[in-house]
Amino acid sequence: MEKLKLLIPEDLLQTVRSSSVDDLLSSSSSLLRLFLGLPQFHQAVSDLGDPDLGCCRKNEETSLDLKRRGNLCFRSRHFNDALRFYSKALRVAPPHAIDGDKSLLASLFLNRANALHNLGLLEESLRDCHRALRIDPYYAKAWYRRGKLNTVLGNYKDASRDITVSMSLESSSVGKKQLQNELKAIPDYQNKQTSEHSEHHPNSYAGVDHLPSLQSEVKLRCVSTKEKGRGMMSECDIEQASVIHVEEPISVVISKSYRETHCHFCLNELPADSVPCPSCSLPVYCSESCQIQSGGALSTKVMDKHHVYQNLPDDVVEHIEGVTSADIYYSEETECIQEHQHECRGANWPAVLPSEAVLAGRVIMKLINQGETAMDLSNLQEILELTHSYSEMSPEIKLELHLLSIVLIWCLNKSCCPDLSVCEASVTQTIILLSQIKVNSIAVVRMKSSGDSLKGIASGNVSEKESIQSLEQLRVGQALYKTASLFNHSCKPNIHLYFLSRGLIMRTTEFVPMGCPLELSYGPEVGNWDCKDRVRFLKEDYFFHCRCRGCSQINISDLVINGYCCVSANCTGVVLDSNVATCESEKLKHFLAAPKSLNHHFQVSEKVYADVGEVASSLLNKPRGSLEIEPEICLICGSRRNVEDSYAEVNKAWNDLRRVGELMNSGRGNVFVLSDCLRSIAVLRTSLHMYNKDIANAEDKVAQACYLAGDLKGARKHCEASIKILKKLYEEEHVVIGNEMVKLATIQLASADSSGARDTTKTLSQIFSKFYGSHAERLFSYL
Ligand SMILES: C[S@@+](CC[C@H](N)C(=O)[O-])C[C@H]1O[C@@H](n2cnc3c(N)ncnc32)[C@H](O)[C@@H]1O
């Protein structure tokens, strides 16, 4: 993109940067004309759209080389490395390539099955055997391997069938004899309990979850307000933790950093036997079902060797023919949108362009394939009906969107859709679509434990040398949902959003009375950042000035989160720096300007009143009209603190803490290091307000350091101190508190405090059920 920018003359740059929606047609037309006439443009983008130059093509040589390396690792019993090489080889293996007298793909699946078998991953290995057999149903070794696996898994009927078929395909009499013995060794399935899978589907790995149905009593309505545009509100009283909305996306794209670890369709974590895209080397899927829904079936020519095996018994032929049927892979109930199909022509652009552009490409191609949009995309906006905020975007973003749209339309046209017009209309519509994606797309997240030993919590078996377990949020993808885009943002949301596969679920986190707006957080929340940081983020990333209840009411969190403590001993008052003081003053002025009936300041609940009173009682007593908050002055007793000096001390203490943290994490921690930690935290406490978030973070770090040093009592004390502060900053039962409690439970278990751990886990389950309802168990099964 930088190269392209250099090609644009200054006056056109100005036009583009200052464009509004009304003159988009003219700015995109001028830019498009310029680029199409410049050989440098064609040079710069040629390798993006030309399949012959793409890096995403299959490559037989590379695949064979990776297979050889896998075999070497296998022979030296490095099964994990072998697995890795085989998976890589599968990704680049052309579907019809042959290695010796075997299909390359089939032999790779079987080799991987062997590696998986040796790693004890039996179901995965079984699925790979089945894949090998689907490609080459006369593959004796694959029947044999599958027979062995079925024996271990107790699927005796299947095992007997598999070994019988492999025996029929075996040419040597010694081999036949050996297999005969193997067959005899299989327990008599008629008399034994056979597994439920006797007619099992080897591809039982199900990546895609089904969405729950809505409670019928929940009624929502879309309303419009001057401040926020359209938004959703309740048309009836809604209980806490009710599911209020479920939706499948218009389209999804995986985040670049999770391309190797998560399924490109359902976005769940990949199993060890991931399945590659049949036509390019980019996506990997957790199952054939996801592969087919995303891009199409693995179109391998089944190797026809029937003439070689003409004398096979009828029942063996029946088994061989049965193995190639594809229906077990794909449930027809699922809508097949094949959103990757247009990308897998081997061209580079889907790998190189930003995720937003790939998502835009998917939306465009989906609408074209469904016959909904014209080839110049002129009706795209009408179809999607999403807000875009183009005029609020910065000049640099406007320029980026222009460039990206031209490149995307050009790539789509060259690589997969020659009928798509490369004209100012399609470019303009794509600019709007990209703006809509910026404003409306939602990050698809997964919660993940930070280490394996969260499973250890369940068994009560936590190693002291591992770091404390915690939950991490992974932003695995980005998706566009039509109705979910109508929900406005609040920094104090009353609904919570989570995902099952690609499906989105919204649940109320509190009782919502009839007529109340239903709002979720786009990221920033009270308790996470202070008001000025939230406002800045929403302006920069979502292009609006936040008018939510969290940003218009006074709350303790915004005052203390970055606040300093009072210099007078025993005073609990907070001292603000000038940035926070200005932002909070603005907020108070806003209250005063509002009509009395709407004046939230005087309507604050008793709890908020008491909380604010604890740190800033002067704000509650101020006469109307004089609500300028003075920086560096305690909001209770009026004592002055030099914030600049305190800032320097805090910085130094944090640098020390970070250094100490690194030492601890690299295993070089000891009691002296730990006492350094405690000194730093004491420094923080002399400068920062007792509810400042930095103290919560520092307490958390110290808890981790104590844990690593084996001081479990200390770890618990500091973890509890962190939770105490978080409870002031967020609501008592916020999911963030739940995440912190996972750490507390780990410490309690490690210190054999099972009753404490039980209590913590009980609270934790309560919190998680409030946010995830009955899905809490499914999403946090290890808890
Ligand atoms: C995902 S859309 C929500 C639906 C949108 N209001 C509509 O009319 O389509 C996001 C846009 O809604 C508006 N919005 C959402 N939350 C807001 C808030 N708290 N304060 C002001 N505007 C808000 C902003 O214009 C923002 O860009």
UniProtKB/TrEMBL annotation:
<keyword id="KW-0802">TPR repeat</keyword>
<feature type="domain" description="SET">
    <location>
        <begin position="218"/>
        <end position="523"/>
    </location>
</feature>
<protein>
    <recommendedName>
        <fullName>SET domain-containing protein</fullName>
    </recommendedName>
</protein>
<dbReference type="InterPro" id="IPR046341">
    <property type="entry name" value="SET_dom_sf"/>
</dbReference>
<feature type="repeat" description="TPR">
    <location>
        <begin position="63"/>
        <end position="96"/>
    </location>
</feature>
<dbReference type="InterPro" id="IPR001214">
    <property type="entry name" value="SET_dom"/>
</dbReference>
<dbReference type="InterPro" id="IPR019734">
    <property type="entry name" value="TPR_rpt"/>
</dbReference>
<dbReference type="InterPro" id="IPR011990">
    <property type="entry name" value="TPR-like_helical_dom_sf"/>
</dbReference>
